[in-house]
């Protein structure tokens, strides 16, 4: 796995081969494979993950609209419609597009209709959580409810509770909530740190939420760019090593690779590498196989918006970990 000439592959489906096939069909304008895949998907975690990936691909097309026109009674099509509408609204917000408010309203309506069509599904509630990011002033009452614990900010806690009622410890729901916390107040990340620790501390063994603090640490690193002297110490600090070890011991050792988020795996490999835990990082790199994600590696480069430098950092880290003496069999 550390062979010369290895080049990593980025694919949103990762190890999920069935999802990869549906994505390929979706990119050619066909929806039948997507419909079949979702019909065969069991469990809310897999459903949430697959609909998120499919929506990211479908958002720039009219494939889901064609599916709804062909099968107006399909509940899966209604949920995917809400997914695509949310994805478009969030992208418009990120780009400062003039139609952001219009797309936001369309997405909110689509989520409400999906809740009515699929009352047991967490995804429409996850969609409404994603839309809370657009309400920067927290003007909507559902976006400024009191928190469930001290040291946490007011926010869309009712939406998170609805998603968790349907799928406890839903990974995407908590990541959407973390994004809301980031956007709520620029500056120090104390609220985000508190939120990530609160969410991960309540999660059971095997939950991907144990990786949540790693994302906050990367965000802090990203914001501290320019203070170069402090950056090398960022990953070997006692709390950084502790967060990496907890994610390894409470999540990675129990997760199924084909169901794990590539972003989570990359964040864990990155944290262990930074903490100089090369043997542990090697196990995560091996589980990644041929895949990678540009983040968080891009933030270690001078050009974080370009994929090439990030790939080189990933490759150097991977080679360092896989060739470390303690990573070799029999040592």
From TrEMBL:
Highest taxon of the lineage: Bacteria
Protein name: DUF4034 domain-containing protein
